[in-house]
Amino acid sequence: MKEKIQSLIESGLESLVEGGVLPEETRPQVQVTRTKDKAHGDFATNVALALAKPAGMNPRELAGRLVEALPEDPAIARVEIAGPGFINFFVSQAAAASVIDQVLAQGERFGRSDVGAGRRVQVEFVSANPTGPLHVGHGRGAAYGAVVADLLEAVGFDVHREYYVNDAGRQMDILALSVWLRYLELCGVEFPFPSNAYKGDYITRDIARVLFDEVGEEYAVPAAELMADIPADEPDGGDKEAHVDALIERARHVLGDVRYRYVFDLGLTRVLDGIRDDLEAFGLTFDEWYSERGLADRGLINQGIERLRELGHVYEQDGALWFRASEFGDDKDRVVQRENGQTTYFASDIAYHMDKLERGFERVIDIWGADHHGYVPRLRAAMRALGEAEERLDVLLVQFAALYRGGEKVPMSTRSGSFVTLRELREEVGEDAARFFYVMRKSEQHLDFDLDLAKSQSNDNPVYYVQYAHARVCSVLRQMDERGMARDVERGRGGITRLTESHEQSLIKRLQAFPELVERSALRHEPHTLVHYLRELANEFHTYYNAHPFLVEEDAELRDARLNLIVAVRQVVANGLGLLGVSAPERM
RNA sequence: GCCCCCGUAGCUCAGCUGGAUAGAGCAAUCCCCUCCUAAGGGAUCGGUCGCAGGUUCGAAUCCUGCCGGGGGCGCCA
Q: Which residue is nearest to nucleotide B15 (CA to C1')?
């Protein structure tokens, strides 16, 4: 409909140009928008305002000429000029209501499109370090990424969902150490647990216990051997990093490569399995779990550095290898290979992103926590240095979520180990509420997650509010059966012009807007607009429900027309909730 | 110090690529079940869009400066 009006305007403009009213070179992008106020019709355009100046005419006069030049169209009932020179279009009732048939015919495909034209897009999200269970902060990135990916798929992109597994590096060594030390405790060895090691009880419970059951005391050493010549920990006036690093070396030495690797991998796989389970229960699946270690094994990290070196974008200083990031828009140069010969996380990321592009994705989307924003310029700098088109990379930053219970902020810090896990959140409020609340706000907005509200079974809870619209339609249909009425879709189609109530008109307009909304929501990576849409749709439906009976006894044609409308509403609610990963219950 | 995000009703937030009297929800006050689930609906109250300039036919929206809140600035990941 929007496109139709657009082309009507374009041909109107064309004839004005031919008639010499408008200068030849006038080629504006015609903007057609849905009106907010129904007094302004269904659609409006501001072309007359935009063209007033080049045409040397006042906007209202120009609008008048344009309206006269518009071709007739049965779908347009009326055209008006309003305000400073807006042109308002009133769509005929029958043309508008045809959306109901469209929804019924397309079913769950309604709202989908092919603007993506099958182009390949990679979405990398969550990618939390496998050192412990996912917490509520990761949950938001997970929910957001899942919806962004689903939306892109809905509008025709070929989407590849990927989780980057940081299975190499020091933090994983600390995990391995933590597992081994907890195991030693299970063996009865007594020593002070390092302040900088991972203290979560999942380590003892899920990992060290398994190790102990498998190998008995075979991997154990006495406390004296463990702690000999280890520098003091922070509480004892030492440096916690040096303390932990020394212990990691000790573990490697005592266990030997094979056993150390065994402990390391045990920790990794147990934690990763937990993460996978959590995400699956949250309705998320990935096409690929991409290993950082694999990147190193395939030599890609060194290849990346080499390529930068060939291009003259790296130099040596203080024994380390630096990338000239500052020449490509970053604040300063960045180390890619440390003095000790180890490559940095950044070097891995360069290699990873090179690989993403080489795998043939036209667009690559990274979804990160907002605390990583400082990292964006350096990655972009690397892309540019490598001669990659920067526009292919999108980094979407998601702000953290704060939980509120009883009006109080739930204290959380990774350091103190008092973080709430995603699993706990899910168990407390349920998957639907969690998914819905997480994407309710603009991603760059801090999210206040009200646990009491998410749990409440009341009209205040926006999740139930939307779901209830779906359940209510189901309930009406059940009621219809109970009353012995038969629904006739065709008869409803015949009575489509009977839907003249203002509630019906608004609902029809709302349904029409859905495909555009999905498209915009997808292309702009803004799931929250879908949430708002569903709330409005549900609201209009509930209002309609209270204002008019659907199961009209004495007028089968009107009844079936109304039933077609509300079944279409149900379909769109279901499609929308489906995109959000939220269920659409048949009864509540 | 530099960088990013945010500042809209008492609270939580929308506001599309600049557009017509700035919108929801919650809270507050009042009203609606002999009627398809009241997990619902309606009405009222509530705003100097942080402040000051600028751009233009038109600014909550774009630009600059300032104020306030949050986050980030490692040879960590």
A: A529
Strand B close to A344 by CB, under 7 A:
yes
Q: What is the pLDDT, as a whole number, of residue A25?
A: 62
Q: Does A293 map to a domain?
A: no
On the question of pLDDT at A405 being above 90, the answer is no
> pLDDT band at A26, cuts 50/70/90?
low
- Cβ of A502 near strand B (distance < 7 A): no
Last residue of a domain, one of A61, A91, A121: A91
How far is A287 from A373, CA to CA, in rounded Å? 26
Any strand B atom closer than 7 Å to A413 CB: no
Give the mean model confidence (pLDDT) for residues A355-375: 92
CATH code of residue A48? 3.30.1360.70
Q: Are strands A288-291 and A408-409 parallel, antiparallel or unpaired?
A: unpaired
- Is the same domain home to A564 and A467? yes
Indicate which CATH number applies to the domain containing A567. Answer: 1.10.730.10
ipTM attached to this prediction: 0.95
Q: What is the mean pLDDT of residues A157-176?
A: 94
Whether residues A261 and A174 fall in one domain:
yes
Contact, A409 CB vs strand B, < 7 Å: no
A176 shares a domain with A74: no
Q: Which residue's CA lies closest to nucleotide B4 at its C1' atom?
A: A373
The total domain count for chain A is: 3
Say if A294 falls within a structural domain: no
On whether residue A200 sits in a domain, the answer given is yes
CB contact set of A368 (below 8 Å; sequence gap of 6+): A141, A375, A395, A396, A397, A398
Cβ A471 to strand B below 7 Å: yes
Tell me the C-alpha distance between A274 and A133, whole Å.
7
Range with the poorest average pLDDT among A208-212, A328-332, A410-414, A447-451: A410-414
Is A586 part of any domain?
Answer: no
Identify, with chain letter, the residue nearest to nucleotide B11 (CA–C1'): A407
Looking only at the bridges linking them, the beta strands covering A43-45 and A86-91 are antiparallel
Residue A579 has pLDDT above 70, yes or no: yes
Among A91, A115, A142, the domain-final residue is A91
CA dist A321 and A305 (Å) reads 9
Q: What Å value separates CA A95 and C1' B24?
A: 29
pLDDT confidence of residue A123: 96
In whole angstroms, give the CA distance from residue A214 to residue A221: 16
Kindly state the average pLDDT of the residues A485-508. Answer: 94
- Asked if residue A164 keeps its beta carbon closer than 7 A to nucleic acid strand B, the reply is no
**Three-state DSSP class for residue A411:** coil
The pair of structure tokens assigned to A364 is 């690559």
Distances (CA, A) of A43 to A15, A511, A551, A584: 22, 15, 32, 31
Expressed as residue numbers, the domain containing A474 is 462-580
Rounded, the Å distance between the CA of A282 and C1' of B70 is 29
Strand B contact residues in chain A (138-157), C-beta within 7 Å: none
Which chain A residues 86-105 have CB under 7 A to strand B? 86, 88
